[in-house]
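Provenance

Sequences were taken from public entries as deposited. Structures were produced by running a predictor on each sequence independently, with no templates supplied. The record for Nicotinamidase from Haloferax mediterranei is shown for reference.
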Amino acid sequence: MWGSILQRAEASVENQDTVSLRNNVLALAEVAKLYDLPVVLTTSRAEGPNGPLLPKLNEMFPEVEVIDRSLVNAWDDPAFVEAVEATGRSNLIMAGILTEVCVAFPAISAAQEGYNVQAVLDASGSLNDRAEQAAMSRMEQAGVDLTSWFTVSSEMLKDWTKEVAPEQAAHFSERTGFYELVLESFNASSAE
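Predicted structure for Nicotinamidase:
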């Protein structure tokens, strides 16, 4: 789940730069595509001050109907919960513009309903470090696992002999500077 369009929310996110935030949001979305994960997209009043969903996400998931809600906690919206239940999954991966609201509220609510929830912190932002620390503490106390998109992707891969491994390596290389260096080193040693 992602909140509103990043251009409008960038002014609210202070704990990471917008280039990194966009990269991480799209990296997580690419993980969902790579592993054919069911995706639920939601906005908070797309016609209001929060704005619509990041257009790139609409392009990546054209078959997914975006749930536009007025409720602050996505879990309080019956359409959102129905969409989550329709996936048939008990493990949820969540991200949103503001960790302390867009992620924490539905993650805690879903955990209370018995879901295993991973909150992807680097594909989410916060008003400041204190707000994120408070949200992280609340989520951990509720049983939500805190993670990153790279960790989620690595957990999905599990084994470098999987058929998807070359795509995974390319994805890591595209989205992280360090993995591009790893691949360059590997390719150079393989050519010898």
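Residues 1-8 have pLDDT under 50 and may be disordered.
The longest strand covers residues 116-120.
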